[in-house]
Amino acid sequence: MSRFALQRHYKSMMPLVELGKQVHSAGRLEPALIELVLMRCSQINGCAYCLDMHSKDARAAGETEQRLYVLPAWRETTLFSERERIALAWAEELTELASHEAVSDAFYERARQHFDEEALVDLTLLVVTINSWNRINIAARTIGGSYKPGQHG
Fold first, then answer.
1. pLDDT at position 100
2. Keywords, A to Z (predicted)?
3. Domains of the chain in sequence order
Protein backbone atom coordinates (compact mmCIF):
# COMPACT_ATOMS: atom_id res chain seq x y z
CA MET A 1 0.00 0.00 0.00
CA SER A 2 1.30 3.45 -0.82
CA ARG A 3 2.09 5.92 1.95
CA PHE A 4 0.72 9.00 0.20
CA ALA A 5 -0.95 9.62 -3.13
CA LEU A 6 1.15 11.66 -5.51
CA GLN A 7 -2.00 12.88 -7.29
CA ARG A 8 -3.04 14.66 -4.11
CA HIS A 9 0.25 16.57 -4.14
CA TYR A 10 0.48 17.01 -7.92
CA LYS A 11 0.73 20.80 -7.66
CA SER A 12 3.90 20.41 -5.60
CA MET A 13 5.30 18.06 -8.25
CA MET A 14 4.74 20.49 -11.14
CA PRO A 15 8.35 21.76 -11.31
CA LEU A 16 9.52 18.19 -11.97
CA VAL A 17 6.69 17.58 -14.44
CA GLU A 18 7.57 20.76 -16.33
CA LEU A 19 11.28 19.97 -16.34
CA GLY A 20 10.56 16.56 -17.86
CA LYS A 21 8.31 18.09 -20.52
CA GLN A 22 10.98 20.67 -21.34
CA VAL A 23 13.62 17.98 -21.92
CA HIS A 24 11.24 15.92 -24.07
CA SER A 25 10.00 18.84 -26.15
CA ALA A 26 13.47 20.28 -26.78
CA GLY A 27 13.97 17.47 -29.30
CA ARG A 28 17.70 17.12 -28.69
CA LEU A 29 17.37 13.57 -27.34
CA GLU A 30 15.70 10.79 -29.29
CA PRO A 31 12.54 9.33 -27.69
CA ALA A 32 14.07 5.83 -27.61
CA LEU A 33 17.22 7.13 -25.90
CA ILE A 34 15.10 8.99 -23.35
CA GLU A 35 13.19 5.84 -22.42
CA LEU A 36 16.38 3.78 -22.15
CA VAL A 37 17.90 6.33 -19.76
CA LEU A 38 14.71 6.50 -17.70
CA MET A 39 14.62 2.70 -17.50
CA ARG A 40 18.29 2.34 -16.58
CA CYS A 41 18.16 4.88 -13.76
CA SER A 42 14.98 3.29 -12.44
CA GLN A 43 16.66 -0.13 -12.52
CA ILE A 44 19.60 1.15 -10.50
CA ASN A 45 17.30 2.80 -7.96
CA GLY A 46 14.85 -0.11 -7.82
CA CYS A 47 11.72 1.96 -8.50
CA ALA A 48 8.99 -0.50 -9.48
CA TYR A 49 6.48 2.19 -10.46
CA CYS A 50 8.93 3.95 -12.78
CA LEU A 51 10.11 0.66 -14.27
CA ASP A 52 6.50 -0.30 -15.00
CA MET A 53 5.81 3.11 -16.55
CA HIS A 54 8.90 3.43 -18.69
CA SER A 55 8.98 -0.17 -19.90
CA LYS A 56 5.38 0.23 -21.12
CA ASP A 57 6.04 3.64 -22.69
CA ALA A 58 9.22 2.30 -24.34
CA ARG A 59 7.39 -0.69 -25.83
CA ALA A 60 4.51 1.53 -26.96
CA ALA A 61 7.08 3.75 -28.72
CA GLY A 62 8.49 0.75 -30.57
CA GLU A 63 11.36 -0.35 -28.32
CA THR A 64 12.16 -4.05 -28.63
CA GLU A 65 11.73 -6.53 -25.83
CA GLN A 66 15.25 -7.80 -26.42
CA ARG A 67 16.86 -4.41 -25.76
CA LEU A 68 14.78 -3.90 -22.64
CA TYR A 69 15.71 -7.36 -21.35
CA VAL A 70 19.45 -6.80 -21.75
CA LEU A 71 19.49 -3.17 -20.62
CA PRO A 72 21.10 -3.95 -17.23
CA ALA A 73 23.99 -5.57 -19.14
CA TRP A 74 24.15 -3.04 -22.00
CA ARG A 75 27.97 -3.05 -21.98
CA GLU A 76 27.99 -6.73 -22.92
CA THR A 77 25.91 -6.49 -26.08
CA THR A 78 26.05 -4.86 -29.50
CA LEU A 79 22.35 -3.89 -29.43
CA PHE A 80 22.96 -0.25 -28.47
CA SER A 81 24.50 2.50 -30.58
CA GLU A 82 27.57 4.37 -29.38
CA ARG A 83 25.40 7.42 -28.60
CA GLU A 84 23.07 5.25 -26.51
CA ARG A 85 26.03 3.66 -24.75
CA ILE A 86 27.43 7.07 -23.82
CA ALA A 87 23.99 8.18 -22.58
CA LEU A 88 23.61 5.03 -20.46
CA ALA A 89 27.08 5.43 -18.99
CA TRP A 90 26.35 9.13 -18.26
CA ALA A 91 23.08 8.14 -16.57
CA GLU A 92 24.80 5.50 -14.44
CA GLU A 93 27.61 7.86 -13.40
CA LEU A 94 25.15 10.56 -12.29
CA THR A 95 22.79 8.10 -10.60
CA GLU A 96 25.43 6.25 -8.61
CA LEU A 97 27.78 9.18 -7.89
CA ALA A 98 30.39 6.87 -6.46
CA SER A 99 32.69 9.82 -5.75
CA HIS A 100 33.32 13.44 -6.58
CA GLU A 101 35.40 12.09 -9.44
CA ALA A 102 32.32 10.68 -11.20
CA VAL A 103 31.98 11.88 -14.78
CA SER A 104 35.69 12.32 -15.37
CA ASP A 105 37.06 14.91 -17.78
CA ALA A 106 37.98 12.11 -20.19
CA PHE A 107 34.44 10.72 -20.13
CA TYR A 108 32.98 14.21 -20.56
CA GLU A 109 35.13 14.74 -23.66
CA ARG A 110 33.98 11.39 -25.03
CA ALA A 111 30.35 12.33 -24.39
CA ARG A 112 30.84 15.65 -26.18
CA GLN A 113 31.73 13.71 -29.32
CA HIS A 114 28.13 12.43 -29.39
CA PHE A 115 26.16 15.23 -27.69
CA ASP A 116 26.43 18.96 -28.17
CA GLU A 117 26.38 21.07 -25.02
CA GLU A 118 22.62 21.63 -25.05
CA ALA A 119 21.88 17.93 -25.54
CA LEU A 120 24.29 17.01 -22.75
CA VAL A 121 22.56 19.46 -20.43
CA ASP A 122 19.21 17.91 -21.43
CA LEU A 123 20.59 14.43 -20.75
CA THR A 124 21.80 15.58 -17.34
CA LEU A 125 18.42 17.13 -16.52
CA LEU A 126 16.70 13.92 -17.65
CA VAL A 127 18.82 11.90 -15.22
CA VAL A 128 18.21 14.40 -12.42
CA THR A 129 14.47 14.30 -13.05
CA ILE A 130 14.10 10.51 -13.11
CA ASN A 131 16.28 10.14 -10.03
CA SER A 132 13.96 12.58 -8.27
CA TRP A 133 10.86 10.68 -9.41
CA ASN A 134 12.44 7.38 -8.34
CA ARG A 135 13.05 8.75 -4.87
CA ILE A 136 9.57 10.27 -4.59
CA ASN A 137 7.87 7.05 -5.70
CA ILE A 138 10.02 4.92 -3.40
CA ALA A 139 9.32 7.23 -0.45
CA ALA A 140 5.59 7.17 -1.22
CA ARG A 141 5.66 3.39 -1.81
CA THR A 142 3.81 3.95 -5.08
CA ILE A 143 2.67 0.56 -6.35
CA GLY A 144 3.86 -0.48 -9.80
CA GLY A 145 1.82 -2.43 -12.32
CA SER A 146 -1.22 -0.30 -13.12
CA TYR A 147 0.36 2.28 -15.44
CA LYS A 148 -1.11 2.63 -18.95
CA PRO A 149 1.24 3.73 -21.78
CA GLY A 150 1.15 7.47 -22.31
CA GLN A 151 -0.79 8.05 -19.08
CA HIS A 152 1.61 10.75 -17.89
CA GLY A 153 2.79 11.97 -21.28
1. 82
2. Oxidoreductase, Peroxidase
3. 13-140 (1.20.1290.10)
